[in-house]
Specification:
The protein is α+β, with helices and mostly antiparallel strands. It has two domains: 82 residues, Orthogonal Bundle (Multidrug-efflux Transporter Regulator, Chain: A, Domain 2), CATH 1.10.1660.10; 219 residues, Nucleotide cyclase, GGDEF domain (Alpha-Beta Plaits). Helices cover 35% and strands 20% of the residues. The strands form two sheets. Strands 4, 5, 6, 7, 8, 9, 10, 11, 12 and 13 form a ten-stranded mixed β-sheet that branches. A hairpin with an 8-residue loop joins strand 10 and strand 11.
Length: 371
């Protein structure tokens, strides 16, 4: 049996995504049982069957291949006998949820002459403003090269236990305000997914690099959160550091309008799951980036980027600079899914730091071997 935490760590999906899969019947509802000996802190926990990870990975693969929600529901309704007889989670009188993915024929089937475009609401004023600033936004979704930065408050559970509720939300709101301000300053669009976690999307804009914008935001956040930490140290009289965890990734994603007045853009693709997993794997206060994102930088921008990997698993281990390592070797504790275990990653050290000094120290490239 697997806990929800096991599933989230092994697949890289968010808790909201898991809850959606449960509500649709794609994943069985958890069986509520007393916690295992190592799961202290809750009187009862929900556990899922051992094959749930494989089920989630299959759903994610089908989504990447362009399957609509209705088709995925039908697929598992036919393939999973235990779901037969259950009511359609979409409701008998409701139409299937509009998919932002293009319809895709089954293997071996004839391709349809013309697939209807997804029904999308008119672009809102917010989306129109983005279009005015140079981002290509359309009512009908399209694929765009995007950078995604997932940002979370480090040790949020510990902060929750040692602060008053009002103080915790004050701190979380201050943290999120800093993320929102800096991401927007660098052309990003921000979505708050929990009290202490945000996702920043950077889309193509005229005269900008969405990949460099994501790294600039991560770099600026490190300084901003250090200043916030110092203010809370004075206020609470403690010595603990408040940190953040960042994960930045790039890739092709489906981008469209959210579908209602005042709603923001929708950005759907595996790149968001990668960024989320990297933020969970990052050491406290660090930003973890993919090799592909660094490679997408313009040559002049790439020359400014300093990055590296720890010499050992120790929290304070020094970095070997200008090299990458596989995610499973960088952060074995997060148990990355098989398809992401070989993802080359590194910690972002700085942008524009002069690389001089003893080999292997911060400020000098180490002649290591990249992944």
């Amino acid at each position: 049996m697997l806990s929800s935490k096991d599933i989230l760590e092994r697949t890289g999906i968010s808790r909201a995504t898991l809850n959606n899969y449960i509500s649709y019947g794609l994943v069985p509802r958890p069986q509520v049982l007393p916690p295992e000996p190592g799961d202290a802190g809750a009187p009862r926990l929900g556990y899922f069957p051992d094959d749930t990870v494989e089920r989630v990975e299959t759903i994610q693969r089908l989504k990447r291949e362009g399957w609509s929600l209705g088709r995925i529901l039908d697929h598992f309704g036919a393939a999973a006998p235990e779901m037969e007889g259950e009511a359609d989670p979409r409701g008998a009188d409701e139409e299937p949820e509009p998919s932002i993915f293009p319809p895709m024929a089954a293997p071996g089937a004839a391709q349809p002459a013309a697939a209807p475009a997804p029904r999308m609401a008119p672009v809102s004023a917010a989306a129109a403003q983005i279009a005015h600033e140079g981002v290509s936004v359309h009512a009908v979704p399209q694929t765009l090269p995007v950078a995604v930065l997932s940002v979370a408050l480090a040790d949020a559970d510990d902060l929750w236990t040692c602060l008053l509720v009002q103080e915790y939300f004050e701190l979380a709101n201050e943290f999120c305000a800093s993320v929102q301000a800096l991401a927007r300053l660098n052309g990003g669009r921000v979505q708050r997914t929990s009290p202490h976690r945000l996702v920043c999307h950077f889309l193509p804009q005229a005269g900008r690099s969405q990949f460099m914008d994501a790294l600039r935001t991560a770099q600026a956040l490190q300084g901003a959160i250090q200043a916030m930490s110092q203010r809370w140290q004075i206020r609470k009289g403690w010595t603990r550091e408040i940190g953040l965890r960042c994960g930045a990734a790039e890739g092709e994603a489906w981008v469209g309008h959210g579908g209602g007045p005042g709603e923001d853009l929708q950005v759907v693709g595996d790149v968001g799951n990668q960024a989320l997993l990297l933020s969970r794997a990052a050491r406290g206060g660090a930003a973890l980036v993919t090799r592909d994102l660094v490679a997408r930088l313009a040559a002049t921008d790439r020359a400014q980027a300093v990055y590296g990997v720890p010499d050992s698993p120790a929290a304070d281990a020094p970095l070997r600079l200008m090299v990458f390592t596989r995610l499973r070797e960088f952060a074995p504790h997060v148990s990355p899914p098989r398809r992401l275990g070989d993802l080359p990653v590194a910690e972002l050290v700085s942008l524009g730091l002069q690389r001089t000094g003893p080999a292997g120290s911060a400020g000098a490239p180490n002649q290591g071997t990249s992944a």
